[in-house]
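Question (not urgent): is this output format expected?
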Amino acid sequence: MADADLAEFVSGLHERVQERVEADPDLMTRDAFVAIAGESLIDDGSLDDLETCYLRMPWQNRTIEVAGYDIAGDGTILHLVAAEFGLHGASVRRDRIGQMFRGISAFAEFCRTGQHKLLEPTSAAYDMAERIHSAWPGLQLIRIFILSDGAITALRLKESTIAGLAATASLWDITRLHRLASSGKRQEEILIDLDARGYSISCLESPQQLDGYKCLMAILPGKLLAELYDEHHSRLLQRNVRAFLQARGKVNKGIAETISTQPGRFLAYNNGVSATAREARIERDSRGSLVLHSLTDLQIVNGGQTTASLHNAARRGIDLSGVYVPAKITLIADQHLDAMVPEISRCANSQNAVTAADFEGNSPFHVGLERLSRSIWAPSPDGLSRQTHWYYERVRGQYDVDRSRYLTVGRRRDFEQDNPRRQRFSKTDAAKYEFAYELRPHVVCQGAEKCFRTWTIDGELGEREAPSAEYFRALVAKAILFSRMRELIQKQRFGGYLAQTTAHALALIRQSLGEIDLDLVWGLQDLPEALAEVIPEVAAQVRTVLISPPDSANVTEWCKKEACWDRVRSVRWIPPASVRQLSRPR
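Got this back:
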């Protein structure tokens, strides 16, 4: 591979996969790759969440193959993932791409027809297929993601119909994943060629402003916005407020009614959208009017409900040819993009119920947590070993960016020894640790992104000041409790539902003890021995409840319900005296 940066990315990706497998020996390398690539796509906005679950089996005269799934868009969009791993940058065979596409198509039909009953009822694959089957009546679109650590030459698959639903497919090969990782905290660029789409849009252009930006005023066809949302979904919406936009759920009925009954008045009634872009190509036509030809890195920062409403109307077959939307598009130079876009979004949304909690990573709380993670040294358990940091990754890829700043192998090794990958944790990890400890394991089971959104909104983190050193040490202690318990439960080889069992077991122990002595855990940098000894017993009792949902319901969905936690917390587990000594008076 000629590109040295790409070669280094491939090597680093495989190191991360291996580290994930070492931390979870039951995990297949392919599943670790899917989880890591999926995390990048979630941060990018291409996916809302992802449940990794591999299934490959013959069915009728076909072969089913799927590596993960998610149900998004208020239950209207099914995301399905397939993966090819182990190529180290070599080319992916075209017939293999077709094979994965056909495998996912077969799986969709398998779920639609209720064939999940052929699977082992206690397996994660059963849960996946059963959940998709239950959601099928509300689904409108299937979005397929084919992931690989190899190179794919054909970067587009034709749209099609799968199991009676419209389907789109996108290929994420090693080059595209590298490009995404190299983009830092911003998502991969959305490039919109209006000419190629058949639109001619006139606009007005402001003079260049003192801070180096300018604005375009335009009237956008509603059909264009619906198409863009259909193609890019939540990636089109500025990520700092994406949690709020998705949490609102139902489409605004007033907007939908205007689209349906009075489309000609939509322009008069609607406040329009505010958007940002890094570049725009505009030219004067023969009449001297400015025409907008293309936009680079488009993001809608206000008007997400309008956009989603138009998309929903188009999906229901409503004609949008007479619907137009006013738009202000702010063109911002690349060097000012990170600073200005969140502020534009904040101001544009000031008339709505968007709290500061929605502006996640840049809040004083998260910035302060990052600062503490770089300055506080964890104690050496034996008093002799090298002290280390618990590295808080406030934005995606931050750890690797910091590591790459050291140009020599020795300096990079020092960085890794000071900041072990095993002690790196993200915003979504922090939310998981907090909720499990605070007796809300059912929220943890809702998935990393949903858990984080709940933590952000419920906890009003955006309103909080930077955390104290005491808070940081307590958070790390909770991380140690969760991660070490997970390792011990995994060794029991119970089968599936490891994450769900860990969250509920930690919550049950916490409830039984009251406040755990987090200072002790921080000092040990490990589970106290007495606590470690009871983990298998507690986990076994908890798992019995988890895999026995009422009315033979879906286990994964059951674990997300507060009623499940109520059932778990009623388990009669009495801590032995050696464990009770670990509790701390409230």
